Amino acid sequence: MKHGASFSLTKRHTVSIRDHCGLTKSGDGLCDLLTELRAGLEKGESNQTKAPSIRGLNDVKVDIFSKLKLKCRISGNPPPKVVWFKNGLKLKADGRIKLRSKRRYSHLIINRVSLDDAGHYKCIAKNVLGNATAFANVIAATTTTESPFWQLRKDPCPRRNFCLNGGVCIYFAVVKEYACECADGYGGQRCETKVISTLSIDFQGE
């Protein structure tokens, strides 16, 4: 059968499909297609085959600590199976990442976004007639109004001698930022500036 071709199937063919595929090993493309179509017919679904297509996935900018939600609208018959990738690596559901797929769409949800979640995401829908792919770039940004540094967890500083003149280095791992607590008399991002206090005194003549 030509790639991308379509044909119709009626319920009266299901017995012959079952007989044929019962004698055929899994991996026979035609048999797999007919088996999936038979399952769809038994559920009352359309008997018109169609290669997968995807729409609705767009680039997005998301704040750290918020929720990222990507959605692919999918179509195809037999119903496509959907797989998500980030920077070329297949994503798997865990406590923070959720993958939810139904017949017409698939969701990727990431809770408590961090800067590490930024990257190139890919949604692939596949059935026996072919596959379709959609892409989205995700940018993770900090928002000082919602997440000021003083509310973030402080971690051991990975850079020695980052702070000068006796300053103490502080590292905020979640946003990958350094800060310094400067000793008295010094200021600046790395405590590199000496602060000179001036006192104006008015002298009055005797």
How far from one another are the termini?
112 Å
Task: Write down the CATH class of the domain at 50-141.
Answer: Mainly Beta
Note poorly predicted spans: 1-8, 10-17, 197-206
Tell me the helix content.
10-25%
Global outline: rod-shaped
CATH superfamily of the domain at 50-141: Immunoglobulins
CATH topology heading of the domain at 50-141: Immunoglobulin-like
Number of strands: 13
Q: Helices and strands, in N-to-C order?
A: HHEEEEEEEEEEEEE
Number of alpha- plus pi-helical segments? 2
CATH architecture of the domain at 50-141: Sandwich
| Largest sheet data | 5 strands, mixed
Radius of gyration: 30 Å
Strands side by side in the biggest sheet? 2-9-8-4-5
Question: Beta-strand percentage?
Answer: 35-45%
Find the structural class using helix and strand composition: mainly beta
Quote the average pLDDT.
Answer: 75
Describe what this molecule looks like in 3D:
The protein has 206 residues and is mainly β. Among the domains are: 50-141, Immunoglobulins (Immunoglobulin-like); 146-196, Laminin, CATH 2.10.25. The protein is built from two helices and 13 strands. The chain has helices at 14-22, 29-42; strands spanning 50-55, 60-63, 68-77, 81-86, 89-90, 97-101, 105-110, 119-127, 130-141, 168-172, 177-181, 186-187, 193-194. Helix 1 (14-22) packs across helix 2 (29-42). The radius of gyration is 30 Å and the shape is rod-shaped. It starts with 13 loop residues before the first helix and ends in a 12-residue tail after the last strand. Residues 1-8, 10-17 and 197-206 have low confidence and may be disordered.
